[in-house]
């Protein structure tokens, strides 16, 4: 029985050391980046979002060290920048938390929070969320998992923010590198009640649910085989490696210029140019 209150991947969180510099970098890569958001004093973090349909990316940075963001700071110290966690869309976070509890995963939360949002007309509104997390120790491939219920979708999915010069449209895959792809894929499959599948080249895929992006577990060698000629410097041996993004390839190639590497029919941003994240633009 699949989880009833989780639809699939909602957004990917890219942990960065300098939030404003990371945002400027992603603008140079042809993404439309939201105005900066600031979380509560308890959370001590800030973010920029890069909105697609039906999902998005989040650039997350620590503004003030707090107990809440200690795991994120530890991640940066040990791994450097990169995909630190993945959010699922929660239909109802309270019920979703009880669903995973019934499956043996004591949830953290649910927790309500909000952040101010500058709307296109200059007015200030609020983005409101209710989230819950799987236990911190349950991090397949070193990537933490949580679920996010959007109470105010209209202040997050703003049409003006969803058009990108690089032609990006939506997430297709989350790439997680690990020396033990089968073990980490099996762990995630158990957490979200999905079936892991072996792809023709031996990597392991775990559907996240609905029409949302898949998780792909693979070794660093397998990643290099999938995307030859792309330098992988800056990636950990185990952790979130990158995102495959459906896009207009001609627009991506034009926007990325010399940064984009043509590889196996894709246009790829190496992790050194993507704040520790390989970005694979795929026709779609």
From TrEMBL:
Pfam families per the UniProt record, alphabetical: Glyoxalase_3
Domain of life from the UniProt record: Bacteria
Spans through the membrane: none
All copies of domain VOC, residue ranges: 8-150
Protein name (Swiss-Prot/TrEMBL): VOC domain-containing protein
């Amino acid at each position: 029985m699949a989880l009833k209150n989780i639809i699939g991947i909602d957004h990917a969180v890219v942990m960065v050391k300098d939030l404003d510099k990371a945002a400027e970098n992603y603008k140079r890569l042809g993404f439309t980046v939201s105005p900066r958001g600031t979380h509560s004093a308890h959370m001590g973090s800030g973010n920029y979002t890069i909105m697609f349909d039906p999902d998005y990316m989040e650039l997350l940075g620590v503004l003030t060290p707090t107990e809440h963001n200690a795991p994120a700071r530890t991640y940066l110290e040990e791994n450097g920048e990169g995909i630190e966690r993945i959010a699922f869309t929660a239909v109802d976070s309270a019920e979703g938390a009880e669903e995973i509890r019934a499956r043996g995963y004591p949830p953290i939360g649910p927790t309500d929070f909000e952040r101010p949002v500058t709307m296109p007309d200059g007015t200030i509104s609020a983005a409101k969320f209710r989230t819950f997390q799987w236990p911190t120790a349950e991090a397949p491939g070193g990537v933490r998992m949580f679920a996010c219920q959007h109470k105010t979708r209209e202040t997050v999915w703003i049409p003006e923010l969803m058009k990108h010069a690089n032609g990006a449209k939506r997430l297709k895959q989350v790439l997680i590198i690990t020396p033990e792809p089968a073990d980490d894929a099996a762990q995630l499959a158990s957490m979200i009640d999905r079936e892991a599948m072996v792809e023709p080249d031996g990597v392991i895929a775990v559907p996240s649910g609905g029409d949302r992006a898949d998780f792909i577990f693979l070794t660093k060698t397998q990643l290099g085989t999938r995307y030859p000629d792309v330098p992988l410097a800056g990636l950990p041996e185990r952790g979130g490696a990158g995102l495959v993004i459906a896009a207009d390839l001609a627009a991506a190639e034009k926007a990325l210029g010399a940064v984009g590497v043509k590889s196996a029919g894709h246009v790829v941003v190496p992790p050194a140019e993507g704040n520790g994240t390989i970005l694979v633009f795929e026709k779609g």
